[in-house]
């Protein structure tokens, strides 16, 4: 194979990987508004040993993340999440992505209160036998507007979560 064919194959692989990652991230952000959080959802987006730094703490593993996301989304009646401007870097079977996220939430407490947050989403991805999956993520909230949901006592950050990222 000559170098031009090898270069074209490399470029085609890069473009294919980038498209698959962009599609995964788009489907992931949209999934928060579709409201189905089960084992199938967790497997479709995450590695088994995923780590997620979220505004109210850090979770480790797909099962813990699933429980956390499901419980968090129960605090809202309706949501619209927008993810945009993702910058994707690919290095073999690993990739990183950084994008902006704007999240609009209607509280489920009966008040119809509106809570909006915006921030940066940093994501590490791995190529798996099933395709690209999120291996680590961090959502850094830059600003909020409105009344945040009232967290149940068991959802309030534990002392070991105090160093976790949160609203600034």
Distance between the termini: 53 Å
Instruction: Please report the number of helical segments.
Output: 3
| Main β-sheet description | 6 strands, mixed
Overall mean pLDDT:
89
Overall morphology: elongated
Q: Number of DSSP strands?
A: 6
Give the strand order of the largest sheet, numbering strands 1, 2, ... along the chain. Answer: 2-1-6-5-4-3
Into which percent range does the helicity of residues fall? 25-40%
Task: Provide structural commentary.
- The structure is a single chain.
- The relative contact order is 0.18.
- This protein has a six-stranded mixed β-sheet.
- The N and C termini lie far apart (about 55 Å).
- About 30% of the residues lie in helices and about 45% in strands.
- The chain has about 170 residues and is of the alpha+beta class.
